[in-house]
Amino acid sequence: MRSQVLPWGLKGSGFFLMVFLLSFSIFFAVEKAYKILPVIYFIAAVFYVLKEKPFLYLKIILFYFFAVSFVIFGDIFNIFFGNSDFSGIEQVARNLILVFPLVFLLNNEKISERSIVFSVFLMLCVTAIASILQFYSVYAQESSHFNGQRIGLWWNPVPFANSIVIFLGLLLGAALIAPKSYWNNIIVGLACLIMFVVIYLSGTRSALLSYFVVVFIYLLAIALDDKRVLFRSWMAVALFALVIATAFLFGDRVALAVEQLYRHFDEGPEYTSVSIRLSSWYYSWLIFLDNPLFGYGTRGASAVGKSFVDAGVVPEYVVNYHAHSDIFDAMKRNGLLGIFGLLWVYLSPFIMMWYFKISLRDMAPVLLVIVAFFISGLTEINIRHNVSANSFYMAYMLALAVVFRPKVQGGKVL
């Protein structure tokens, strides 16, 4: 009698895949897991590559490699001239180790859209449970970032909330190209609901905006894919309900932001959330204009910026804050070189679609990860923060695996 084998098997690559899916669930919930897990995956994938000697899909691997390395190209230049140090690129550069896990995922015959949807959903559920427990003073109370109100587990609430929306984008994108099923619909609905609760408890406006855009694109995509008038009507109702819920729960914060915006331009810079961002952007713009090609790095920017503070052009407090925008931070830090690296991250999905002749829908996992990253990065620094940088590149790697694994046959990318 033949023995029964589990769908993924408990040996070889199936075993490692199952270990990955289960261990990935603690990515946010356990302190420093987001740093440790990529290293573990790297070591395991290196052994896999050395043992199995799989085919290397160089074009796909290079896309990931460039998404990491182009961002820090200007930093390397400024380190050479003494304007920055290695700590300024460590948050990004360490994600290069995910190239080997990407090789494993691309060669794993058991990987599928559903397996990624399930693993990300499990991770988001564990994260939501940990977040709610923190809110009720049961878990992660020793976190230095928790003030008893806005949850963030082990990090500042802003990069934490932005990071989970990036993974939500991955889940929704993978669900779009996965075979249709009621289970997928249930998982998507629950994921959107629990992530909305987490974002609400974090009180992060940038994550809320990113969340709304990502969910809107998902609902719009499935509405356009289904020609039934009744179904599209339900999708319109869902979108309207999402807007109403957002306005009801976050309306006071949006109103406060608008009020601070008017006061900034009428009365001048103040020590408020909106005013700090506007002043920081202007401060970064002035530094960029002083050296638009290469920027001034992390050290040089502070020295040059002090002259603008002394001249009264910008308030003194902006020196103590980051640029509050991936775009302005790249301009200030590395000039046009920094902008080039960041633009590659934003535009690479479209380059991939054109190069590999992939439709917009089939590229949905990568596209929604980039959209979530870009929207929240307009008012926050994602690519230079530990947890959000790790989260983005981890989600990006998984998205590449979901998109390209089914399209690889006979060692050649179609």
Beta-strand percentage range: under 5%
Give the termini distance in whole angstroms: 40 Å
Counting DSSP H or I runs of 4 or more residues, the number of helices is: 16
How helical, in percent, are the residues? 55-70%
Mind summarizing the main beta sheet? 2 strands, antiparallel
> For the largest beta sheet, what order do the strands appear in spatially?
1-2
- The low-confidence runs, each spanning 5 or more residues with pLDDT under 50, are 1-11
Report the order of strands and helices. Answer: HHHHHHHHHHHHHHHHEE
Oligomer: single chain
Shape: globular
Quantity of strands, as a count: 2
Gyration radius, rounded: 22 Å
- What is the mean pLDDT? 84
Structurally, the number of domains stands at: 2
Kindly name the structural category. Answer: mainly alpha
Features:
single chain; 414 residues; mainly alpha; 2 domains; 2 strands; globular; disordered N terminus
Architecture overview:
The protein is an all-alpha fold. It folds into two domains: 14-250 and 322-409, no CATH class; 257-318, no CATH class. The chain has helices spanning 12-23, 33-52, 58-69, 73-80, 87-93, 99-107, 113-135, 157-177, 182-202, 205-225, 229-267, 273-290, 297-310, 326-356, 364-377, 386-404; strands at 408-409, 412-413. Strands 1-2 form a two-stranded antiparallel sheet. A hairpin with a 2-residue loop joins strand 1 (408-409) and strand 2. It starts with 11 loop residues before the first helix and ends with a strand. The chain crosses the membrane at residues 12-28, 34-50, 62-80, 115-139, 159-178, 185-202, 208-224, 231-251, 335-356, 363-381. Residues 190-342 form the O-antigen ligase-related domain.
